[in-house]
Amino acid sequence: MGRPKKLEGIDDAKARKERALADKREIEVQRQRGELVPMSAVRDAEVRLAHMLRDALLAIPSRTAMTLASMGSAHEIQELLEVELRGALAALSAGFDLGREGDVQAHDEDADG
Question: Whole-model pTM above 0.85?
Answer without folding.
Answer: no
